[in-house]
Amino acid sequence: MVRTEDAQVSPRRHALWGMSRRRARRTKGLAILSDRVGVNFATSSRSVVSIFVFVLSGIALGSGLDYNVSLGARLLPRGAGIQAVVGYNHLVWGDRKDDKSFLFGFLRPSVVANTSVVNNRLSGIIDLFPISLFGVSLGYYVSQRGTNIDTLDCSVIQCRGSVYGGFLKTKLMAAYKRVFFVAHYSLQSLGSEDRSLPLGDEFTALIADSGGDRLENGELTVGLKFPETTFGVIVGASRYLTLHNSSTNQSLFFRYSTGPWAFITGVGTFSSTHHPNSGLNTFAFVKWNGAPSLGD
Fold this sequence. Notes:
- This protein is mainly β and 296 residues long.
- The chain has one domain: monomeric porin ompg (Porin), CATH 2.40.160.40.
- 11% of the residues lie in helices and 55% in strands.
- The chain has two helices and 15 strands.
- The strands form two sheets. The protein has a twelve-stranded antiparallel β-barrel with strand order 1-2-4-5-6-7-8-11-12-13-14-15. The chain has a two-stranded antiparallel sheet with strand order 9-10.
- Strand 13 and strand 14 form a beta hairpin.
- Helix 1 packs antiparallel against helix 2.
- 38% of the residues are buried.
């Protein structure tokens, strides 16, 4: 997937937590989350509720809320939809005086909802950044799909129905004057109660094993940032570790920002095990950042 939110930074200052009881509650919730988001595909309604209750309790406790809404579409893998994000920022140490400050760390629970009407996904995420330039995210998602994947043969794989899984993500950032780079790595599980057929993944257009699989994804963004515009290159690769199918993408992107609004467009190529000839890929997004997070 193409990420476009990393090209601009505009966080606010937040206060430290003041109540040890709340800290204890979050520590207990984080332990529960860590146990749930590995590569174990066994799931239950109780585990899902535990994660989302923990994330929502963190969001509801303070004034450090962030929220944004984005609308986007891409050509390969073909898709379009709306994403809404609500999070709560807790500054653990340091301070964010301006856009050049980076000596601070933060914890951020959030809920992310994605919908294209026919496909719907809900994720609960905990971001832990010991320093603003590097962070780790743990999360769990549930997804309900109601349409076929046009780049896969849905007569022999599951393209519809519900899937679920946990994920671990890392993010590393650096900048020098106007030059910046952002590196992502993630390991995600994908499973379903119906194990009769392999599972189609609508985000990567790849196929996961019917008994559950792990998706490995890496992405690197390098670019130049100016007061209102950003442009650069995105290179990414994804692969499932059990069925050994993979995809790659390379794109040039341009971003224009004004106030809380950002407009992003790009063009590049996409190829995969199931789409071996490189195809033209274009994408466009509009994002409204009502209240930026410390990770923006």
